[in-house]
Amino acid sequence: MFTKEDYKNYFMQIGRLEGMMIYAVQDAVANIEDSDLKNTLSKIADNEAEHYSYIRDIFAKLLLRSEDDRRRHIREYFLGKAVVKASNGEKEIKALCVDVSEGGICLEYNDFLSIGKKVSLEISLYGQKNIIRRNGVLIWYKEIEPGAYIGKIEFRK
52-61: long-range contacts at Cβ-Cβ below 8 A with a sequence spacing of 24 or more? Predict the structure, then answer.
């Protein structure tokens, strides 16, 4: 019998795989000049984004309902990349965007950050040309699989 925690872990891992597929295809599209191939890969990326949205909906609606009720800001699922820089300059981490709200951002990344770590962010969302720059603090994280993390950074001024 699976526990709620088993389901959370399963859907986090599936969501991570779907997200990685989207990013891999988007990177390929950005580096290809052949328009027919670019169009086909764009359709694959759209298909993967649809799969990803199903996983995120399941995860949010079925497994985190009580947590979502506590949120102060509505989350929007935006895909993109971020560079996370520790305020003391000790490390720079490349991350993938999961969702964004007025109050913060959820990211997937492969390098440990500790709770309370002050960071600066450079966020590049797909479909938007402007880079978003914010400061924040890591307020939550979970190791999804060895060396792979999902974390929430609360924006600060």
Answer: 52/15, 52/18, 52/19, 52/22, 52/77, 52/79, 53/77, 55/11, 55/14, 55/15, 55/18, 56/15, 56/98, 56/99, 58/11, 59/8, 59/11, 59/12, 59/15
In-domain check, residue 74? no
Q: Are residues 64 and 87 in the same domain?
A: no
d(CA 98, CA 66): 19
Please provide the DSSP assignment of 88-114 as one string. Answer: TSS-EEEEEEEEE-SSEEEEEESS---
**Model pLDDT for residues 62-93, shown as the tens digit of each residue:** 655 445 445 566 666 677 899 999 887 778 99
Q: How many domains does the chain have?
A: 2
* Whole-structure pTM value: 0.72
Any idea what DSSP says for residue 130?
S
